[in-house]
Amino acid sequence: MIDRKIGDKPINFEVTIETTFHLPYFERKPCIYIKSWWQDQRRRLYNANVIDNIADKLAKGLNDVQEIIKTEKPILNETERRPGGTEPRMQESIGQQAKTMRTQVKKSTVRDKLKLTFNFCTGSDFWQMTVRKYLQYSFPSKDILFSSTDEERGKDCGKVKTLFLRIPGKKGFGPAGWTVQSKIEMYLWLGLNRQRRDYLSGLPNGFEENKLSKGPGLPTSPPISLTYMMKQMFQLRVHMYQARSLFAADSTGLSDPFARVFFSTQSQVTEVLPETLCPTWDQLLVFENVELFGEATELRDDPPIIVIELYDQDTVGKADFMGRTFAKPVVKMADEHYGPPRFPPQLEYYQIYRGNCTAGEMLAAFELLQIGPNGKADLPPIDGPSDMDRGPILPVPLGIRPVLSKYRIESALIPNYKKNPNFSTLVKWFEVDLPENELLHPPLNIRVVDCRAFGRYTLVGSHAVTTLRKFIYRPGDKQANNWNTNEEIVVVNAEPQQNFKKMDTVVKLDSCSDAVVKVEDDDKGKKKRKKGGEEVEEEGLDESMLDWWSKYFASIETLTEALRAQEAALSDTEDNNDSDLADGGTKKGKSRKKKSVVHDPFEKKKPKLDELKVYPKELESEFDNFEDWLHSFNLFRGKAGDDEEQNATDEDRIVGKFKGSMCMYKVTDDMSRDASFDSGMGMFQNIPHNDPVNVLVRVYVVRATDLHPADINGKADPYITIRLGKTEIKDKENYISKQLNPLFGKSFDIEATLPMDSTLTVSIYDWDLVGTDDLIGETKIDLENRFYSKHRATCGIGRSYAIHGYNVWRDPMKPTHILAKLCKDGKLDGPHYGPQGKVKVENRVFMGPTEIEDENGLKKQTDEHVALSVLNHWEQIPKAGCKLVPEHVETRPLLHPDKPGIEQGRIEMWVDLFPKDMTAPGPALDIAPRKPKKFELRVIIWNTDEVVLEDDDIFTGEKSSDIFVRGWLKGQQEDKQDTDVHYHSITGEGNFNWRFVYPFDYLMAEEKIVISKKESMFAWDETEYKIPPRLTCKCGTQTTSPLTTSWVRLSWT
Fold first, then answer.
1. Rounded CA separation 458/462 (Å)
2. Where is the composition biased (Acidic residues) (predicted)?
3. pTM for this one?
């Protein structure tokens, strides 16, 4: 806009074109030297350099491992596994460990750990270079310190280094100081005066020293300049192909990137590509007549570096800095042949940095060609496609640009977001030319656009899928799909009364084996076992005492024993290793004595119960986030932040999620199709329809552990809040007073519609009498991924089938119905039920019991046990098999939005999903905490003996005592009871025949006494405690303190 006050006055416009300048230091190089006297701290600096070199080598090795992981081929599917090959899970484990090590051990982290080691010897020895107080560069003196030992020499000593000057002061920090203000190529050396003969040893050869003329007998001084007599002419070719995952510099979440390349005294820029974070420039930049000084062989081995900076072009103002990377070109001398294996150079990825953070990757190639005596005629021609539309812009020539093949990518306007946010078309596809080398595939950009009136489009959010390797369709080997026609029999013998037996069967068969595996239950109703010569009687099961908590605590005990066994095995391994080191390998042949474990021969064995799977972490971590075909991509919008915690800033930019999947494959003419192949669905056969689905969500919350204190007394008053869509359930009236490990035992039913109500939030709040309640932590669950997953996460599969009792089947679909549906969806042959409890699916045959007992004890025939055996081993079924989610309890961390990444506790829960268009589920499982029962303990005090005599009779002088007995239950000290007093006992005996009566609340299953009382007179309500039952009795005298103390633990059989 132009100010109206100007009127008709002439208006002047000033246009500034950014240019770069250079100092004409061509063949004549100026030299500066400083002579000074310091304290001799070389040993400390040498030690610092040694540690620095160790950190550099470690970081280089980890980078090499990471590159190997990136370039590895994707892990084979189950149908592509080869005999004798590495197991996919082992490959995943190795890769995951290497990635974890790479994130934990970096060059920066190692230096931070060792910073205290040598910080005191380098903090004051900093050299600073200033150019007219505008630009500066600082570096520690240890980096340029000379030593005859390579490990002790500074990393920049005796080398021509490229230095980037920055603005001094506060202006030099942050994004404003990240851009290159000036670039200087310098040779630096710091050493003793007696080592001056080595100060020019690292310079490129071919120079003459220019010294000041001094009189005879005066010491020689370093030269004032160097004159290079050898000059080489080169042509630099920069092949800029593409970049990916760049910094979002605009408010839309996108950028208008272009690259600026600096080399020697020249610089060039690429074209500007609007609104993208993954630009494909496909541009060749040619730097003509580049003069480099020194011998040709040295320039070939160690060429100067190339600086590439990326900027975001803005309509108004200066371009915004997006990142920087460095590269070294491949050098070709005039007498070398331009051909394999070095030429033409291959495209490589270069990491882009913005400050201390990564800001994407750039795919490019660089070659430096020497111009021979015949001039440019000897240079290789630039062969490439001619693009008249791009004008003078040269594309990347053939031989360097990737070889393209035609790929088809399968992955639509939304009619009404509020009614149905799903796309109207399930599968869409398009064909595109992509490089045959998978590492060179460009990113896939996902953009969600809002269509508005009058043909306007507004960007809602975008996401860049940097790698497409996991979406590439790889047809399985024909021989691998040729399963053996011989039947592989898996025999599962289980007792008919499965509700009282633990079925723990793990069967693993190879795809081409003919093995017969029998998995039998080893306790077939045995009442006694011989152990150490004694018969141990097993405890019988009382069905009236068993409930869901019995199964839960049995599962917790199994998990604890497994963890203890792992720790014991690990400690034994460490002990053996330590003993081997201590023995020095001289006692390898001697056998070590194992620790003997003494068992109580009269100890009663606990009965085996049916158990569920207790996961110590989220269920998603066990099943790859349930992204077996439905993937989630976060949509970003807005300018990215400059904080080092890039993940925290990215969370603020998330505006939604895109859910779907992609499949990419080469288009060939001989692609085989089955008769049932639907061409409209492409490779996505048998995927469910994406119409809105009404479901019943049943949330079970068992307990919470290690909650963060929310009150000043170090406790909390937690209660549960459930949010799903517009529905919110607050269980505020049932808060648990002053507990950090509350036992909830609650279930909640919510009706929802997928995908509108797909995120379930379970929160734990702290109840406050005055003011608003405080959020302790929350966890979020994606229900849509669980609902559509092939792992069947809607309702867990139990280990056994029962129609009554504590282990009753809770899924509305019986095992036979589930098995029939899975076989139909996977187009499998079966199930075929046969005599003697056999069932066949494909070429697998399973066996199991065929009888089930009802509530009245009557037995009837059923195929449910056999079908359940197949479901528990569904991952062994060919072609369509996978692990199904078992009956479980998952442990999820509780997080607070204001404290990201810090756990505020953990919650144990599980979720069931039931479609409303199918059979209605039964009532919710009763997991309410067990209620204590009223008990009364009656203790008879009959007599005492050998009581110490403390009193002296004033007349006879005999020893005596006035004896009494006091008793109480632990936790109920206020209910102490005393007997009467037995006066003047001269033998230490006391006869009472006295009875104590203690009423208390007792949990029989947990063997705990429950006490509810207020902690103080100011407490609002009572706090519940669970303690072991313990009776304490003390015998004392009336005139002295108690003499003897004994306690008795209460137990019932």
1. 12
2. 572-581
3. 0.68
